[in-house]
Amino acid sequence: MSIALYCAPHADADSVLGAIRATDYIKEATSGEVAPEESELWALVKSRGEAADVEAAVKAAQALPDGWSKTTCILADAQTARDQSVVLVHITAGGAETLRVAADSTLELAQRLSLGSGSISEFRQLCGEGNIYDAYGSS
Q1: Is residue 63 classed as helix, strand or coil in its secondary structure?
Q2: Angle between the N-to-C axes of helices 106-114 and 13-21, in degrees from 0 to 180, rounded to the nearest 10
Q3: Are the C-beta atoms of residues 130 and 139 closer than 8 Å to each other?
Q4: Under CATH, which architecture does the 2-131 domain have?
Q5: Which of 14, 31, 45, 107 would you label with 74, given CA atoms 20 to 30 Å apart?
């Protein structure tokens, strides 16, 4: 299953994907047995075009074909260029919950959310200064 990355008009999808993939999580998850680029995690997040805001990203994610997560997506917005963070969106029956996440922590949380292993509120409690979840202390 793939997780969609939507970018606001001024965000560069390739740069954002590069920042998301520049994580130690892939090495940890594969125990270093394969190159990061050969891991399924490398291709977990894929660019799906533009979305101006969370509402537009949610609407687009819900319309994705089979093989794409309908409960998790990512938005690169104006703040992404300033601090290398993205908005992780968890889509529920009651709406959407969001959490700002350091790019290099995104794969881990996106995978956990898409598998139902954790919640936005749980991850929010682990946020440091600036209310950005950062598993590796990079931001």
Answers
A1: coil
A2: 90
A3: yes
A4: 3-Layer(aba) Sandwich (3.40)
A5: 31
Structure tokens at 2: 């793939």
For the entire predicted model, the pTM comes to 0.90
Q: Residue for token digits 């190159």? A: 35
Handedness of CA 21, 17, 126, 68 (dihedral sign): negative
Sequence ranges of the domains in the chain: 2-131
Residue 42: which of 27, 21, 28 has the closest Cα?
21
Give the C-alpha distances (Å, rounded to integers) separating 76 from 57, 66, 73, 96, 131.
10, 23, 10, 16, 16
Report d(CA 45, CA 47) in Å as an integer.
7
Tokens 């509120």 map to which residue?
Answer: 121
Lowest mean pLDDT among 31-35, 51-55, 59-63: 31-35
d(CA 38, CA 31): 13
User: Residues 69, 60: contact at Cβ < 8 Å?
Assistant: no
> Which element (helix H / strand E) includes 102?
strand 95-102
